[in-house]
Design brief:
By secondary structure, the protein is mainly beta. The protein has helices at residues 2-21, 24-37, 117-120, 304-313, and strands at 40-48, 51-60, 67-72, 78-83, 86-91, 96-101, 124-134, 137-146, 153-158, 165-171, 177-187, 208-211, 214-215, 223-225, 233-240, 249-255, 260-267, 277-281, 284-291, 294-300, 314-316. The chain folds into two domains: 15-197, Lipoprotein localisation LolA/LolB/LppX (outer membrane lipoprotein receptor (LolB), chain A, Clam); 213-319, Phosphorylase Kinase, domain 1, CATH 3.30.200.100. The protein has a twelve-stranded mixed sheet with strand order 7-8-9-10-11-1-2-3-4-5-6-12, covered by helices on one side. The protein has a seven-stranded antiparallel sheet with strand order 13-15-16-17-20-19-18, with helices on one face. The radius of gyration is 22 Å and the shape is globular.
Length: 321
C-alpha cells in the first residue's frame, strides 16, 4: 500500500513538472520558424463554407523566409511566387502578372508571424491536444483557445519531429469548423532545386503587368483607428485599383499575429448603392458603414463584434477635434 501511494505521488509530481515546463510561446515560435526555414513539397486543400481549392506548394527554406511556389490544381489556374516579402501572381485566365510586397500574408503552412509570437501568446491559451494522422503522417495537435471574445479558436496539427503544421482549423465558439487548411500529401524535409521554383508561365511578354498596390506609411495615413480590439495592430496599408471601381481603394491590413482583418476605404461615388450592414458567408464576416463621404468595409474570419469594433473605430485624421 505504501509503495502504491509512493508511485502515485511520483506520477503526480512528474505530470505537474511537465505542465510547468510546457512553454506555449516557445512552441509557437518553433512552429513559425519551421514553416519558414524548412524545405518541403506537398499538396494541400483549403475549404471555407462552400468554397474549396487545392494547391501544390514547393518551398525552399532559409532564415530570411525562403522561396515558395504555389500553384492551384482546381478552379481558375494561377501561380504565386513568393521570395521573402516580394510576391508575384500569375493569373493564367486573364494573362496578368501582378507584383506586390507583402510582409503579412497567410501562405499555408506559414500560419504565424514569428515576430508577433510573444504578443500572440498573451491572447491565446496554448495547450497540447491529442494525436491524429494527416497525409499518412502522425501529428500532434496544438490548441489555441482565445482568452477573449475578439477571435476564434485554432487547432493546428504539427509533425512532431520538424514541427511543421500539417493541418490548421479555425473553430467558432460552438466548435464548428469555419476554415481548414490540410495537407493531402507532403514531403518534409525535401530536396528542392531552383527549377522546382520556377513559374510555369515562362513567357509573359504579352501579359498585362500590374503593380497591385502602392504602399502607404500607416503613420502618415489619412485614416487612423481610435482604438482597436486587444492584440490587433495595423501591419500594412496600401492604395490599389480594384475591378469595377472608378477611384483607388485604400486597404488597411490588421493582424494579431495569427488572423488577418482587411479594411477597405473608398469614396461613396465608387459604391453609391451600398449602405450600413453586417453579413456572414462561410464563416467570414463583413461589416460596412459610411464615414463622411467614404464607405468602409471590414472583412475577416473573426467574430462580427470584432468587425464592428474595428469599423466603428476608423476615423479620418481631418475629423480629429
Amino acid at each position: 500500500m505504501r509503495r502504491l501511494f509512493w508511485l502515485l505521488a511520483l506520477a503526480g509530481s512528474v505530470a505537474h513538472a511537465e505542465a510547468q515546463t510546457f512553454d506555449g510561446a516557445e512552441l509557437l515560435q518553433r512552429m513559425a520558424t519551421a514553416a519558414r526555414e524548412l524545405s518541403y513539397v506537398g499538396t494541400y486543400s483549403y475549404s471555407r463554407g462552400d468554397f474549396s481549392e487545392t494547391t501544390r506548394v514547393v518551398h525552399h527554406g532559409d532564415p530570411g523566409g525562403g522561396v515558395g511556389h504555389f500553384e492551384t490544381l482546381s478552379g481558375k489556374p494561377k501561380e504565386v511566387l513568393r521570395v521573402g516579402q516580394d510576391v508575384t501572381w500569375y493569373l493564367h485566365d486573364s494573362r496578368v502578372v501582378r507584383t506586390e510586397r507583402q510582409s503579412f500574408r497567410k501562405f499555408f503552412p506559414e500560419l504565424i508571424a514569428p515576430e508577433r509570437v510573444r504578443m500572440l501568446s498573451q491572447f491565446y491559451e496554448v495547450s497540447r491536444g491529442g494525436t491524429d494522422r494527416v497525409a499518412g503522417i502522425e501529428c500532434s495537435t496544438v490548441m489555441l483557445a482565445p482568452k477573449d471574445a475578439f477571435r476564434y479558436a485554432q487547432s493546428i496539427c504539427i509533425e512532431p519531429r520538424t514541427l511543421l503544421p500539417l493541418r490548421a482549423i479555425t473553430l467558432n465558439e460552438r466548435q464548428e469548423r469555419l476554415e481548414t487548411f490540410v495537407f493531402t500529401q507532403v514531403e518534409v524535409p525535401a530536396r528542392v532545386e531552383a527549377t522546382d521554383l520556377r513559374a510555369r508561365a515562362r513567357d509573359t511578354s504579352g501579359w498585362a503587368q500590374e503593380a497591385a498596390s502602392q504602399n502607404i506609411d500607416p503613420a502618415s495615413s489619412a485614416w487612423f483607428f481610435r482604438e482597436l480590439p486587444a492584440g490587433f495592430a495595423v501591419v500594412s496599408e496600401s492604395q490599389r485599383n480594384m475591378p469595377g471601381r472608378a477611384a483607388p481603394v485604400i486597404h488597411k491590413l490588421l493582424s494579431d499575429g495569427l488572423v488577418w482583418v482587411s479594411v477597405f476605404i473608398e469614396p461613396l461615388s465608387n459604391v453609391p448603392a451600398m449602405g450600413r450592414g453586417l453579413s456572414q458567408q462561410g464563416g467570414a464576416g463583413t461589416y460596412s458603414r459610411p464615414v463622411g463621404n467614404h464607405h468602409v468595409t471590414v472583412v475577416g474570419l473573426v467574430p462580427v463584434s470584432t468587425l464592428v469594433l474595428i469599423g466603428g473605430a476608423l476615423t479620418a485624421r481631418s475629423a480629429q477635434p
